[in-house]
TrEMBL record:
Residues 130-258 form the Mandelate racemase/muconate lactonizing enzyme C-terminal domain. PROSITE patterns: MR_MLE_2. Coiled coil: none annotated. Pfam families: MR_MLE_C, MR_MLE_N. InterPro entries: D-mannonate_dehydratase-like, DgoD-like, Enolase-like_C_sf, Enolase-like_N, Enolase_C-like, Mandel_Rmase/mucon_lact_enz_CS, Mandelate_racemase_C, Mandelate_racemase_N_dom. PANTHER family: D-GALACTONATE DEHYDRATASE-RELATED, STARVATION-SENSING PROTEIN RSPA. It comes from Saccharopolyspora halophila. This is D-galactonate dehydratase family protein. It comes from the Bacteria.
């Protein structure tokens, strides 16, 4: 029995906002969990501080599954991003503690490495096609074997995935959501041209990915998928709003372009139909939004049964604690597809010191016991929280569209 004696929530804004949970056991072992929910950070901080931390004190840190069930079933009100991010943070911190106590990296506790490294995909972006091609070239030179390509869309200001010149991509950029205009027809005409230009210039010797960011209807997504078939995509991500699971059947009827979805999912119930009916090829749930290592593993096991591979969300709005947790799972599961990796800002690196590494396009979580991430609380205190919201998308007529 190793009792939890302290539970503390740290809110910090090193370049962007992160919420981190710190659990300490009676033996002085510290575990870290990521509780960041982009744009709704303080709701999770409060859920943890006000409703979860008091319940953790005195509990046995080793009883990870029991704690998960206690928080999930015990709340009565199930699922939802705030609840599931909070449970995830506790779960991730408990796995970190278990690894540190055992003196083993978490992936060893999950059954050991099922591969030598985790295939990573990076983000390439450009204001126009030539700029995108330069960025793809730079990433291929860095050794990446898989590249996500996004470019501006004619007539659409502030296209998803494209940063202002020379800046790191960070969509949650202002205290009130920025508004952008969306034009589906323009996007549908332009996207195949963009991805075709990438293949024309660099060939087929690397994996090419694209994120639609939930903006199409099923039939539009079917058309896009078909137009992208000559470019042999690794996947087309989030083609339609993710909560409508049966909609994916319509996309499937029209295209062989592989489909990935899941970054907004919180539980296995959000993707049960998608997986069991084989409507997708990759499940992209994130460890810190979908109930932590315990629950993500359950989702990935269900996916394995149906031939669906994994592709964990790894955007910069998940902290390095989250990325480390995802990498331990990635290394151990049999059905890994790929891991998103966009890195973090230098300010973030002042607060979080991970031991994962990138080599020749593959990530590895490292051999440090637990998750292998150190958090510098003094550095965290130097970066105050700044409210930042994701943008809102409007169509030409002003109606709200999916962002
Ligand atoms: C991705 C995602 C992110 C999200 C972000 C929202 O594929 O990386 O789409 O860019 O927009 O995580 O907070
Ligand atoms: Mg995405």
């Amino acid at each position: 029995m190793s009792k939890i004696v302290d539970a503390k929530v740290i809110v910090t804004g090193p370049g962007r906002n992160y919420v981190t949970l710190k659990l300490t056991t009676a033996d002085g072992v510290v575990g870290w969990g990521d509780a960041t929910l982009n744009g709704r950070e303080l709701a999770v901080a409060s859920y943890l501080r006000d409703h979860v931390c008091p319940l953790l004190l005195g509990r046995d840190a080793n009883r990870i599954e029991d704690t998960w069930q206690y928080l999930y079933k015990g709340a009565y009100w199930r699922r939802g991003p705030v609840t599931m991010t909070s449970i995830a943070a506790v779960d991730i911190a408990l796995w970190d503690i278990l690894g540190k106590v055992a003196g083993l990296p978490v992936y060893q506790l999950l059954g050991g490495a099922a591969r030598d490294g985790v295939l990573a995909y990076c983000h390439a972006t450009g204001e126009d096609i030539p700029a995108l091609l330069d960025d793809v070239a730079a990433h291929l030179d860095e050794g990446y074997l898989a590249v996500r390509a996004q470019a501006s869309v004619p007539g659409v200001d502030k296209a998803y995935g494209v940063p202002p010149k020379g800046q790191f991509y960070e969509p949650a950029s202002s205290a009130v959501p920025e508004e952008s205009r969306w034009d589906t027809e323009s996007y549908l005409r332009h996207a195949p041209e963009v991805l075709g230009a990438v293949r024309e210039r660099f060939g087929f010797g690397f994996h090419l990915l694209h994120d639609v960011h939930h903006r199409l209807t099923p039939i539009e997504a079917g058309r896009l998928g078909r137009d992208l078939e000559p470019h042999r995509m690794f996947w087309m991500e989030d083609p339609t709003p993710a909560e409508d699971q049966s909609a994916f059947r319509r996309i499937r009827e029209h295209t062989t372009t592989p489909i990935a979805v899941g970054e907004v999912f919180n539980s296995i119930w959000d993707c049960q139909q998608l997986i069991t009916e084989r409507l997708i090829d990759y499940i992209r749930a994130s460890v810190s939004h979908a109930g932590g290592i315990t629950h993500l593993r359950r989702i990935f096991s269900l996916a394995e049964l149906y031939g669906v591979r994994t592709g964990s969300h790894g955007a910069g709005d998940l902290s390095p604690v989250s990325l480390a947790a995802a990498l331990h799972v990635d290394l151990a599961v049999p059905n890994l597809g790929i891991q998103e990796y966009m890195g973090h800002t230098p300010e973030t690196a002042e607060v979080f010191r991970p031991s994962y590494s990138l080599d020749s396009g593959y990530l590895h979580p490292g051999e440090a016991p637990g998750l292998g991430v150190e958090v510098d609380e003094e550095a965290a205190a130097k970066f105050p929280y700044n409210p930042r919201y994701l943008p809102v998308n409007r169509r030409r007529d002003g109606a709200i569209h999916d962002w």
